Structures are given as structure tokens and as C-alpha cells.
Amino acid sequence: MIRSNNFSVCGIIQTVAMVMTCCCAWGPISAATPGVASNEDGVGIHQATADNVVLFLADDLGYSDLGRFGGKLATPHLDQLAADGMRLTSFYVHPICTPSRAALLTGCYPQRIGMESVNSVRHSWGIHADEQLLPELLREAGFATGIFGKWHLGHRPQFWPLHHGFDVWFGTPGSNDHLSRLPDKWAKQVGSDVGLPYIHNDEIIDVGFPQSVLTSRSRDRAIEFIRRHADQRFFCYVPFNMPHTPLGVSERFQGRTGMGAYADVIAEIDAAVGAVLACLSELNLDENTIVIFCSDNGPWHIFGNHGGTALPFRGGKKQTLEGGVRSACIVRWKGVIGAGTSSDEMAAAMDILPTLATLTGASMPEKKIDGFDLSPLLLGRTEKGPRDSYAYYFKRRLQAVRLGRWKLQLPHDDTQAPDLIGNDGARGTIKSVPQSLALYDLKADPAESADLSGGHPQVVARLQEFADQVRSELGDELTNRLGAGVREVGTVSKGSVKD
Hints:
Blueprint: H1 9-20, E1 52-58, H2 76-83, E2 86-92, H3 97-106, E3 125-126, H4 134-140, E4 144-148, E5 168-171, E6 180-181, H5 184-190, E7 194-195, E8 197-200, E9 203-207, H6 214-228, E10 234-239, H7 261-282, E11 289-295, H8 322-325, E12 326-332, E13 341-348, H9 352-360, H10 375-378, E14 389-394, E15 397-403, E16 406-409, E17 412-418, E18 430-435, E19 438-441, H11 457-474, E20 490-491
Parallel strand pairs: 1-10, 1-11, 2-13, 4-5, 4-10
Antiparallel strand pairs: 2-12, 3-20, 5-8, 6-7, 8-9, 11-12, 14-15, 15-16, 16-19, 17-18
């Protein structure tokens, strides 16, 4: 069922329907046979309500960095998570950090809520107080809520997690390379007026710590939170700082893989996930806990061997090629979601909020959102997902759109194309590469290697019509369009305090 709060719903449904029913020789624009495994034992066909949610988010992880997604790195715990649940192989995020996190927690395209760019320490904006985030909705439904890791929805304290539905936070305001100006107390202690702060709730508790402690801190605090709230409903959000550069790995995992620092970091993340899952099992919480794992964007290729891989896709972080925005995603709910299943139906980070609202009995946000409820797909009630479209933005620039199996690359300059590649922590360089109009069949050509626009003018026309509808609602810097559905971002002077 397509929910009525999606942007320009009537127009988009009409566009999708027109394209899917077009009686051309090349067939419909809808996706090919979906990949959801059959569910002969009936698992997952009933409506159920989950008591707990654990949401893992990696930072700059490549699509094929996990074994079950075609990777060569050893990820036994994540592979087992996939074996026990469902793999979503066409799961979309955004090409940079802040927008993906905003989409995940609000159910919106980040362009709708003014969160389309990376938030840094120099910015006085952040998530608006009037936006209802996932932790707020779950807390209203009786959940204890905790975040253990990177926030990145506002560096100023007014925008921090405890002001947006979380009961407890241990972590960093932004990425592990974002140094903040420090209060005098900490500046004197570390001998510098800037540093990477580690926060407990609204207080700095550490500065100058090694990057190697970040993954284990998130793991330990998450386990502590789960144990404390084992007898009540809880939402445990674990946004790891890694494998964002600079890489940091604990002594226990240094050199463990024999494949370099990046592989060691992935091994530690995998083990951290395994430790949290073991805690759930020990406390007999497996069967009433939804566990989700995904990344915020694709790998950062300019860092060479300190970045991941996104095969079979092209592109990476900061690009709207599939490798920059397609994330490995796993969803497990033992006894409810069919074990070992997978789906190539389109899904997105913004779909997580409405899906979890349905599966936990929480309320939906009052304002318009863009996410779809994936629960019928996850529960095995249907093989067809609710999402058949996606808009690919880099910041405020609409660079591509997708309907069904077809992706239309819109003319733009790819200002983030890798040029010289760095290694061993050295940052490479980027260049600007002009991109012309191109049509790709993502089912047959996931690497976006063959432009089919010349042979399918009607498909191109429908996708251009869809792109125009997106621009009308969300805006587009490339065509100087303002979106009618865009809401204000929060600023220090306005929208940083709940009404």
C-alpha cells in the first residue's frame, strides 16, 4: 500500500503507472522478478509487534565489504546475521554522512528538511526541533532510547541527541576527523584549543583519546544499555565512527586479518556486532528484537587502501553512481522475518522510520515524510516492495532519478570524481567530470556501463517528467528550482528548542 504522505503522491503514482503500463517492445519499466525467497513454513506472515530495536550504522562502508554481499573480507557475525534474516540488495542511502543520518531518523529526503549537506563544527544549523525523529516516536511508545557513537545532525549542543528523543548518548558530535573548539578546561588539559570531543549526554567527558577506542566504546556502551533495559522496551542505536578515516582499530585487532588496516577495522566492527547479538541471545531477547545493519554511504575511494569497495557498482562516497548510494542492508527478526531471504526490491534509509513505527506500534510523524512501510515485504506477505522510485541528490543538486529498473542520469558535473588516490591514510585528490544525460537498466547493468537513452525515448521522457515533479517538491540547485515542500532547517537562533 502506498502511503499518502509521500511527496506529490498522486503525480508520482500516475507517472509510475504510465511507465509501467507502456506497451513498447522493450517491456515495462518495473523491476524484474524480485529476489525474496519463498516462505513455505509460514514464518513472518502474521502481524507482530517488536519489543526492541537495535540499529547498527557503519560509516563509509562499501557495499561489497561484507561476505554475504560478495566481499572478500571475513565478516562471520554479519554473515550470520544475514543468514538469520533478510538481505536488502537495493537499499539506498545518500552520498554523504549527515543527509543519510537525517533520512534514517526522520523518514524524509534530507532536502525536505534542510539537512542535505555535511554538518561541521563551523555550522550553526542542525536538525529542526519540530522534526519528529525515530527515537522520539519510540520513546512515546514506551521505549528506552540510547545512541552509542556518531550523531552528526548538529554540532552545537542545542541539536544533540538528548534534545531529539534519546535518553542517553555516548559518542562524538560528528565524524572522527571533525575537531571542535574546546572549553578552557579541556584546552588546558590537552594543551590545545581544538580536539575531538567524546560526549556523555550533554557533557564532554574525554578529549585527546586515540581513534582505536571508538568501536569498542560503542560496543560496550550498547551492551551496558541493553542489559540495563532488558526488562523494558528499548531502542539501541549504534552508529559506528568507523571505517571513516582516520582509521582506528584496537590493539586486539591490529594485524589480525593480515589484509591491512581497513580489513582489521571491518573485523572489529563485525566482532562488535557479534558481541551485541550475543548479549541479546544471552538475555533471551532474540525473538522480540529487530536488528538492522547498514551504512551511511559508499566507500571513500580517494583513500585507497584505507577505503572499501562497492563492486559490482561504480562510484563511491560523494557520488550518485550506485557505488556511492547503494548500501548493504540486513534486517533480522528471528521467527518473524524469514531466515536466509533476500530482496532486490528498492528500499531506502528513509523507509526505516515508517517500517519500525508499524512493527513496534509507534505513532507516525505529524508532518509529511517520504518513507514507505516495508513491513509487508519483510514479513513475507508480498514479494513486491512499496517503493518504485528514488531521487539521487548530492547536496541540493538532483543528479539522477530511478523508476523501476531504469535510472536516468541527469546532466551535471561530478565534482567529486577521484583523481589521484592516496594510501595508508593519505588523502587523494578529486576532479570534476562532466556527466551527460544517460539511461541505465540497473537490473541488467548495475555497473551503469551502457547508455540506452537512444533506444528508449519514451522511458527517458517519463523519467524526466518524474525528475520535474521531484524538483517541484524538493528543489534543485542545478535548474534553479525551489521546492514547495521544503521545510526550515534548525538554527541556533530558530528551531533549536522544542515548542
